[in-house]
Write a structure and sequence with these properties.
alpha/beta; 4-stranded mixed β-sheet; about 40% helix; globular
Length: about 525
Amino acid sequence: MKNKKLLAVLPVMTLLISTVAGCESGSKKEGQSTSTAAATPSGTPVTLTVEVFDRGIQGQPDLNNNTWTRYINENFGKPNNAVVKFVPVPRSQEIDKLNVLMAAGEAPDISFTYDSATVSRYAKVNGIIQLDDLLAKHGKELTNYLGKTVLSYGLFGGKQMAIPAKRTSLAWNGMFIRKDWLDKVGMPIPTTRDELYNTLIAFRDKNPGGVDRVIPWGLAATGMNYNYGNLGESFWGKQSEEEFVTTPSWLRPGNKDALKFLNKLYNEKLISPDFALDKTAKQADADVTNGKVGFLIANWDYPLRQSISEPLKANVPNASFVPIDTFKNSEGKYKKIAYNENGVNIFIPKSSKNAELAIKYLNWMSDPKVLFFLQYGQEGVNHKMVNGIPQVINQTGDNMQTSNLNLDLTLVVNGVELGDPQKNIKALAASAPGLEDAAEKSYKINTTDTYTNFFYDTPSESNIKFGKTLGDMDKQMTDKLIVCKPAEFDSLYDKLVAEYMAAGGQTVMDENVKIYKAMQSNKK
């Protein structure tokens, strides 16, 4: 199956918060951009307003007066006779707050959201500015940096209504197994579903860690940190592209068998017994760090992060999680989902009087020197170089970054940007000191044989109406099916799916088909 674009209503890839220090403004420093005009325009400075997330980080600096905002105003503001003013928006309320600002005509000149459906709705009511001409006139470097594929996620009705950021880290989930346990039970790394099953049985019966209450497969309530990875994909049967992108997973051929497999594991005491009650993953984290878990699926680098790896090493010095690929499908592939190429969606409200300056600002930001400084600052102050890769130096106060690598300020990119994909991977791996090789291997595994979900360029009104209800049902259905008695599984599956479709699933699917067909027709 060909890769498909992902509706950008996604959880932000879980990242470690890094804080780094910067240089004071006023004098030329390393990393300072030279791409702005030499002559400063005359007249009263224009105020360019830019949205910024207020994440409520303890000890965070003034969001309008810190090392990074002063750098921006010194290097972009002054040469363009502008003052860049940041408008804080609470991260947890960003869409609600944005809707209020848009309705009042007070949204920042540069606004953004991770929710493509929200942008699509604004476009539908003519609330944002079409950007094609502005990009052509003032966004050459920006256009070249993002490329056609990334920009295509900002097309609504064939018009460029948003500027998506480039996502540089595409790996999503990862599978990890205790290598020291494998060695103790004398088994190789499992490469198929059946091999994994046999390994889990060995972990249960032989308890290679010698722990109380051994947990072969560590799991928490369905969510971000612990999940089922590409188990489902290993069971899926063939579908046309239209069927695959428009139908809920509950109707995919093989999905029932995948859930039945999990039900079998649960009833054979091969997965966490109380996973459905672990809504925060605190219990799962404790089980992992206390050395009770043999296998888990989580974010691609999760057990390699210091927050997990260090307490595990302290408790079990010889413990070693290694990345694996074990869910092979009938075609011999390890199909798995990856993040799509776009990140946050940037747009300019119709109420803005500074659209041209806004595009110039984003164009300036796409300069590699600007991106590097905003992400890493000065060598020796904000970062140190290790084997040619910058590593941040955590700091507080004026130099603090309130998001990883200044994600909230480097709007044109989501993730590390060193101008070379291989260097980007090594920089990501550097966040797992001592485990860099495992991190690189995991990233490679989880960006191989990948697909992304379909991107709808038109908002689905039925999804807006029923999305939360169906999302809640998804979780409840999955948990019920895993923990039920095996003899009850088939009838319960059919009953729950019928209820799901009646609760809005069928309506959403029908609208998906309608939008999909219209998009295909527009391509002709």
